[in-house]
Every structure is written in C-alpha cells, then in structure tokens.
Amino acid sequence: MSVYIHSIPGRLRVKIPMLKAQPGLSERLTNELECLIGIDHVAINPVTGSVKIRYRTNILHVDEILACLERSRLLDSRSIGTHANPETQISGQVGVAVGKALFGWAVGKALEPAGLSFLAALI
C-alpha cells in the first residue's frame, strides 16, 4: 500500500492506509509522535487514514518525524508518494489549460470556411 506525504515547513500530512484498517493504531501513533520534542499538535482521522502534524521547524525536521513513523512500522520509505510543490503543480495545470485552449483555437480556425488557408499554412 502506498503512503502519501505532503509537507510544508511546520506542517506535515501523511496518509497511511493502515490506519483505516486498524483504528487502534491511531492512539499509539499519537502518543509516539507527541513524545518528540518540537511537535505542537497531532490530529489523526482514522476514517481517511490521514495524520496532520504541526511542528516547530527550529527544533524538529520533517525527516525526524518520518523516521519516527518508520520506526513505528507505519511507514515504509519505499512506498512513499509525495505531493508536488504547489507552485509546480499550478504551473503544470496552467500549461495544460493553455495548451488545450491553443489546440481548440487551432481546430476552430481550421474548421472555419476560411480555415482551409490557415490549415494549409500550418502544413
């Protein structure tokens, strides 16, 4: 099963499918994470298997939190899927939208009565 991680400084979200199957793990995980110095808040949703962790970046690094999850056998570093940087994701979506718009415009021009000359110019 794949584990999903989204991280911004001070906040980490991890989706662990195992938490949905075994609700008793939530309390154990909360206790383990809250023992780490620098963790401010842990919120677990056993219905979605999502863990939200707020932490102090000047005290704790995200790698230390992930290592704690791995030691707890709730995280396997080989099955991690990460969320892209939001700016990268948005620019990718904008690029796709612009590409679709340009393609739609070109097809529209090609199908207009005078589009034959346009189509010939493209070829």
Describe this structure in words.
The longest helix has 26 residues, at 86-111. With 123 residues, this protein is of the alpha+beta class. Helix 4 (86-111) crosses helix 5 (115-122). It has helices at 17-21, 25-34, 62-71, 86-111, 115-122, and strands spanning 3-8, 11-15, 39-45, 50-55, 80-82. A 5-stranded mixed sheet has the order 3-4-2-1-5. It folds into 2 domains: 3-82, Alpha-Beta Plaits (2-Layer Sandwich); 86-122.
CA-atom Rg in angstroms: 23 Å
The largest β sheet comes out as: 5 strands, mixed
Secondary-structure content class: alpha+beta
Number of strands: 5
- Spatial order of the strands forming the largest sheet: 3-4-2-1-5
Number of domains: 2
Note poorly predicted spans: 81-91
Query: What is the CATH architecture term of the largest domain?
Result: 2-Layer Sandwich
SSE ordering: EEHHEEHEHH
Arithmetic mean of pLDDT? 74
The 3D shape can be described as elongated
Strand content: 15-25%
How many helical stretches? 5
Q: How many angstroms does the end-to-end distance come to?
A: 48 Å
Helix content: 40-55%
User: What is the CATH class of the largest domain?
Assistant: Alpha Beta
Enter the CATH topology name of the largest domain: Alpha-Beta Plaits
